[in-house]
Amino acid sequence: MADNISDVVVVGSGAGAMTAAIKAHDQGMSVTMIEKANVYGGTSAMSGGGIWVPNHGKASKIEDSPEDAWTYARALVEDSVSDVRLKAYLERAAEMVRYMEEHTQLEVVPQDIYPDYYPDLPGAKTGGRTLDPSPFSGKALGDEFKRMRQQHPQTLALGRYAITMAEGRRIFSKEPGSMMVMLKLMANYWTNIGARLKGKRDSRLALGNALIGRLRRSMMDRNIPLLLNTALVDLILDGERVVGVKIRRDAESGADEPQELYARQGIILGAGGFEHSQEMREKYLPQPTSSHWSAGNPCNTGDAIQAGLKLGAQTSLMEHAWWGPAVRVNTEAVARVLFAEKSLPGLIFVNSRGERYANEAAPYQDYGPNCYRAHGGEISSIPAYAIFDANYRRKYMLGPMMPAAITPDALLPKSLKQGFYHRADTLAELAHKINLPADKLTATVERFNGFARNGEDRDFQRGGNLHDKYYGDKTCDPNPCLAPLEKGPFYAVRVYPGDLGTKGGLLTDQHARVLDQKGDVIKGLYAIGNTSSSVVGSTYPGAGTTLGPAMTFGYLAACHLGSEFRGEASAGDTTLATELMDC
């Protein structure tokens, strides 16, 4: 085989891309994977690593059914996403998981107490649908361990120790035994002398690093080539079919002239969204917007989406993102999303009038719509402010700020002391420092404190459902998400409508084939993950609804390519019927 020809070229190296590469290889096709960065794993490596898979068939205390999954998803996902595409995800995700567990290093565990994000909707479950990758040893990767993109610092306990979903919840929620969990993690880390001599990075991989580590090891077992520092420049057409990609092998410097890499069967685009392209954000997302507010992979600049647009591909959901309340440290490459902090008692979000405007503990996806809806005219919620008191500061973390019980204000790093937070002895003084009306802020806090003491948020029902309480403090009565802000000093931190990535991308069918403006298939071109338009629309059914579809449609793309490779694809299977279109 010539060096620049394979059956399938996969662009990107996240979980969806790796799943596609592995499944394509296992069907007898040669595969080449290219990655723009000098490390592999994409946003998947930085993520929580969870996979949302209804009816997965693994041992769980939660009963599920296809009917319940469909009822829940269809009620949540807007009609612009077609039934056929949504069903492809719900009905084939479990098949993908079974295949990967049987044929690769993948191993996942159901999180029986992690509820769907909208637990009051029909068909929702109190847990079980989110699968967490089991921890994996970086030693199994050899030299490839140091070439894996590192975990986002906010997903590490104390910024250092790798933790699973279950461990993280016990620690953040202060459940009984949480201190013992933390001590065990620390002991395992510091007694690993070999790893400590090599550096700070924990060689016990969890969350997104565990998922990518397991998939990368499976690619290594198959000798699937992975070319780092190789950027997609353009797609190559032969007539009406995509037959290859133009690449730049020295992606960091951009010095090399583009080269060509050909694919006999097809190209799978799994290169993420456009969250770090300020130009695309300003063109498509609600305003104001900034790439500095994103917690996604810094290399995600929409290259693959732009390449598809040049061919006349159709897009959808370009105004949407995987939103979340984000804080920003200027010395860090990406923002931090407040996953757990927003649910913990003793913290509120306020706008420029010093007033709350939404349930802080709501699913993080809701933060974007809530924030932009509350922003406009004389009222600004961008940035909003997280307001908390000394009790919260002592007990809990806030983004990069460790609890004061561990790191008091005097010991915080200089990067946080220089503008990350504001502090004052009274609420009125704090309001003056951040230019909020003192009377309004004081009244808001007094009203909230009354709710907290009674255990019922009469304005926004915070802590009123199972999802809100998931990261609440179980030691806080009568509501684990509510505590009064009453002890000075008081603190304020700017909060932005951040994201984990963008949702909009190339519109695809149930096989992940990219569609043109007429709804016809662009032959030879597939898109998955955040390069494609989200199969769950503007919503977020549960933890892992980014990676679940990415891996499922990576698997389905490879299955379709395999059927064509074997000559099984229908000759008439090139145009999507009008009733199956997503727009």
Question: What are the SSEs and their pairings?
Answer:
Layout: E1 5-11, H1 15-26, E2 31-34, H2 42-46, E3 51-52, H3 66-76, H4 83-103, E4 108-110, E5 130-133, E6 136-137, E7 156-157, E8 161-162, H5 165-172, H6 178-190, H7 193-198, E9 204-205, H8 207-222, E10 226-227, E11 231-238, E12 241-248, E13 259-269, H9 278-284, H10 303-310, E14 315-316, E15 321-327, E16 336-337, E17 347-350, H11 367-373, E18 384-388, H12 390-395, H13 414-417, E19 421-424, H14 427-433, H15 438-454, H16 466-470, E20 490-502, E21 505-506, E22 513-515, E23 521-527, H17 547-565
Task: Walk me through the structure.
The protein is an alpha+beta fold. It has a domain at 340-499: Flavocytochrome C3, Chain A, domain 1 (Alpha-Beta Complex). It contains 17 helices and 23 strands. The protein has helices spanning 15-26, 42-46, 66-76, 83-103, 165-172, 178-190, 193-198, 207-222, 278-284, 303-310, 367-373, 390-395, 414-417, 427-433, 438-454, 466-470, 547-565, and strands at 5-11, 31-34, 51-52, 108-110, 130-133, 136-137, 156-157, 161-162, 204-205, 226-227, 231-238, 241-248, 259-269, 315-316, 321-327, 336-337, 347-350, 384-388, 421-424, 490-502, 505-506, 513-515, 521-527. The longest helix has 21 residues, at 83-103. It is globular and about 70 Å long. It starts with a strand and ends in an 18-residue tail after the last helix.
